[in-house]
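seq:
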Amino acid sequence: MRVRALRLLARREYSRFELQTRLSSNGGDPEEISQLLDHFEDKGWISEQRFVDAVVQTRRTRFGSMKVLHELRTKGVSEDGLSRARDALAGSEVSTALDVWQKKFGNKPVSISERAKQARFLGGRGFSADVVRKVLDEIDD
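struct:
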């Protein structure tokens, strides 16, 4: 079990919850897994902050803060970690949404239905309605 956990951690950062889920899927003893993960945290091999930073870094250029925060929440990140991620994502959300819009569409919407399609796309990428409105208003100017 220890070797499997180290192999997983060698590939990428994992949250404690994710790693616990992966290790227990093979029918490992929950108490033993918990002790192993405690040991890994003591050694610094598992870090929630590093995990949050890695996810934010890789997702921030393609997705809005709502989607990134939802992903972190499903992976068992604490409220403190979510707060740090929210702060890291807050400043650049409009410019990120504009970049995502530019890559996908690049042209101003010519009709109301086209504008709605673009808004739905950005909303599906996890951008708030406020951000979507700012991006589409900026494009119309």
